[in-house]
From TrEMBL:
Catalytic activity, EC: 3.6.1.15, 3.6.1.3, 3.6.3.-
Protein's name in the database: Putative ATP-binding component of an ABC superfamily sugar transporter
CDD domains registered for this protein in UniProt: ABC_MalK_N
Species name: Buttiauxella agrestis ATCC 33320
Organism lineage string: Bacteria, Pseudomonadati, Pseudomonadota, Gammaproteobacteria, Enterobacterales
GO terms under biological process: carbohydrate transport
A GO CC annotation given for this chain: ATP-binding cassette (ABC) transporter complex, substrate-binding subunit-containing
Primary enzyme class: hydrolase
GO MF entries: ABC-type transporter activity; ATP binding; ATP hydrolysis activity
Length: 362
């Protein structure tokens, strides 16, 4: 199989700089997810790896071979698109074997490879059907099968699940994970869905405006976001962010929120008085406490309650703005009530308000 290495890669369309000096190493056999908001450059970066987009500067290497100026068909990659891109007049068997036929492989070898891939994907009984007779999930499996038969060094997936409904996306997501576990082929997967990224990727690359914000495992990004953008993008519901100013109160560093209320900061955090910071905590990292126990807690007025059966979500107003909390237990609370929310020290993140960079994670 093969590693993928990008070295100082850039892409510009006239004065518009889409990819800005990106360097990245994807090890052999890794499942890497490129994630970020629309327009961040993730699909452009994938197409540059594939050779479908000419790069403006830098180098692309696959399996330690410089392929910067190599045609797509010679890069030994296979791409799965969002749109399936199946030939409507061809059967599943013919669609899956088309690239092998164009490569002039013997019919017996084509048949063997197609049937092996069909068995792997549960398509054996569908080989003689046309695409119009298949469901969306089956068509996407055919598109994956067409890539698998080529036995490439690298699989490239460009938002392959975005045309499927929520239930089918979850199913096919699992199938792609199982496929990678069995084949161990280096895979690069593009999505704008951070839940998809978290559940599929071994390695996640968060992009914004053509630059890499952070690279790491799903839990590294969730537990130790490098900056406010990553903290806000990764995680659902989104992380809470309370802006305030650091003050020294009775020898203790506290955060003064917009309404003047005070919130305890984690002990030992490296901040200084008058520094503007953002206090961030994930919705599941708080407890409800009695008012008599409210030292260091956050006073919150409940504006809405959502019960999903497994979770209860409280939407509140606080002295620092809106705040969402998630609880596994069902609390005896009502809209309009005031509660005290006690952040768990181990879940608090502090970011500098001006730079957005992390000051501390606990």
């Amino acid at each position: 199989m093969g590693s993928v290495v990008l070295k100082n890669v850039c892409k510009s369309y006239g004065d518009a700089h889409v990819i800005k000096d990106v360097s990245l190493t994807i090890p052999d056999g890794e499942f890497c997810v490129l994630v970020g908001p629309s327009g961040c450059g993730k699909s452009t970066l994938l197409r540059m790896i594939a050779g479908l987009e000419e790069i403006t500067g830098g180098e692309v290497a696959i399996n330690e071979k410089d392929v910067t100026d190599v045609e797509p068909k010679l890069r030994d990659i296979a791409m799965v698109f969002q749109s399936y891109a199946l030939y409507p007049q061809m059967t599943v068997r013919e669609n899956m074997g088309f690239a092998l036929k164009m490569a002039k492989l013997p019919k017996a070898e084509i048949s063997r490879k197609v049937e092996a891939a069909a068995d792997l994907l549960g398509l054996g009984v569908l080989l003689d059907r046309l695409p119009k007779d298949l469901s969306g999930g089956q068509r996407q499996r055919v598109a994956m099968g067409r890539a698998i038969v080529r036995n490439p060094q690298v699989f490239l997936f460009d938002e392959p699940l975005s045309n499927l409904d929520a239930k089918l996306r979850t199913q096919v997501r699992g199938e792609i994970r199982e496929l990678h576990r069995r084949l161990k082929t280096t895979s690069v997967y593009v999505t704008h869905d951070q839940i998809e990224a978290m559940t599929m990727g071994q390695m996640i690359v968060v992009l914004r405006e053509g630059r890499i914000e952070q690279v790491g495992s799903p839990l590294e990004l969730y537990d130790r976001p490098a900056n406010l953008f990553v903290a806000g993008f990764i995680g659902s519901p989104e992380i809470n962010q309370l802006k305030g100013e650091v003050v020294l109160q009775n020898g203790e560093m506290m955060l003064r929120l917009a309404d003047g209320s005070l919130l305890s900061l984690p002990p030992g955090v490296q901040v200084k008085p008058q520094q503007k910071v953002v206090y961030a905590i994930r919705p599941e990292q708080v407890n409800v406490v009695d008012e008599s126990e409210q030292s260091g807690a956050l006073k919150a007025t409940i504006t809405a309650i959502e019960n999903t059966g497994s979770d209860m979500q409280l939407f509140c107003n606080t002295g620092g703005g809106a705040f969402t909390s998630v609880f596994k237990q069902r609390l005896n609370v009502r809209e309009g009530e005031t509660v005290w929310l006690q952040p768990r020290v181990t879940g608090i993140h502090i970011f500098d308000a001006d730079s957005g960079q992390r000051v501390a994670c606990h």
